[in-house]
DNA sequence: GTCTATATACCGATAGAC
DNA sequence: GTCTATCGGTATATAGAC
């Protein structure tokens, strides 16, 4: 799957999610027309992410959000009951999209090597199109309440587990040489996150998301494919 | 060098730096007695880092800082002229310490392999003792003004360059197999940063800084030492 | 050098007109 | 469904007593 194809799939999921959020919030939200609500919700989320990523969510005043989104203070409060609820809605929306998109990208029937490559690429593509959300999530997790923080950690661990599973499968088939699948998954995830957090660095060096994906895949593969392949082992498919 | 030895070296450097800061700020600072000033500065920095790392620097009110540090609002403003200046002072102090400690840890006379191991370990030890500052720096860089942001990026690139230099030296001596030293250094740095940013994850798994250092060293080495070592190459010292 | 008291501005949130 | 006007609270920063 190329980046452009991926982009289309993810955009569709994005709309799905705005509808889902509206459906769930219909009780607490004052707006009743779905078309209006979904349009404004997407608008608010976008404006909030843009402003928050400049100086942080706490520093974003609702007056600034009102200005950027084009909605009045009063109108904003038709979509959430407090600034904190807005924070939670944004976090939820991103987590949902991450889960939805990632799980669709990996084919459990293919070889561990192919799955690993697909997972790395899909994760990078995802951070690329949801760059603002990932950065936001990264920076604002500590400002959530206990319950939301727990969800955020679970989401992180779930993504990591995708890599743990692939690595363990590769271990069982003797195609990966990994001493510690959990730690290996952690550092792989750290490399992927860097693409989002240190975006300025890669932009300055004119490295594209595909350049970075190719490099990370190469780096990880040479770390775990083992430098002394034992040709006598069975199940060797890579 | 063990972690405990490292700790002592770094603590000494920390005091040096508080004196340096006092010397430089003597003009703008109202306090004239060095002993008082250094003691309170260290106190203020520590309180500010603790509070900032809970909800972010912007969310930390100076009233809260006053409460935690034990100094009154008025007294605080004897040490800085604005909240933003405090932010800059904290960033400066950490950058200075990083530079000072890291440069003392790597022996340019040793082999690339040893230098790489030392650099990884030193960086992790440093993030361990300056955990609060690194987290702070990570989270608050975007809230700095343009000039300070530039300094922050330069500091990041300088640390990365330490690894680039080691990798290139290893390349020249044909002991490392690296396709792109800059990108390799970037991902190594990403792994090191993860130790600080995802501290909760490693704490929960009861992984010590030495466990993590050993793992990262092993992972990086198996990625770059090359899986088909060519025994006929000269200068091979690892 | 450190304190308390206060000036001024802006925050999140809401009430009520349209 | 969206607006404007305004509430009470709290923020940074400072003035002046001690």
Please explain how this structure is put together.
2 copies of one chain form a homodimer. Chain A has 238 residues and is mainly alpha-helical. The first copy, chain A, has a single domain (3-224), classed as Tetracycline Repressor, domain 2. Chain A has 11 helices and no strands. The first copy, chain A, has helices spanning 3-25, 34-55, 62-69, 73-76, 83-105, 112-129, 131-140, 146-172, 181-197, 199-204, 209-224. The longest helix of chain A has 27 residues, at 146-172. The first copy, chain A, starts with a helix and ends in a 14-residue tail after the last helix. Mean pLDDT of chain A is 92; it is low at 228-238. At the A-B interface, helix 2, helix 8, helix 9, helix 10 and helix 11 of A face helix 2, helix 8, helix 9, helix 10 and helix 11 of B. Chain A binds a DNA duplex (18 and 18 nucleotides) through helix 4.
CATH domain class name of chain A: Mainly Alpha
Q: Give unreliable regions of chain A as ranges.
A: 228-238
CATH topology of chain A: Tetracycline Repressor, domain 2
Main pleated-sheet profile of chain A: none
Calculate the terminal CA-CA distance of chain A, rounded to whole Å: 20 Å
The overall number of domains of chain A is 1
* Percent of residues in β-strands of chain A: under 5%
Structural class of chain A: mainly alpha
What value does the average pLDDT of chain A take? 92
- Overall morphology of chain A: elongated
> Radius of gyration of chain A, rounded?
20 Å
CATH architecture of chain A: Orthogonal Bundle
Order of helices and strands of chain A: HHHHHHHHHHH
Largest interface: A-B, 45 and 45 residues
Report the helical percentage of chain A. Answer: over 70%
Oligomeric state: homodimer
Corresponding CATH superfamily of chain A: Tetracycline Repressor, domain 2
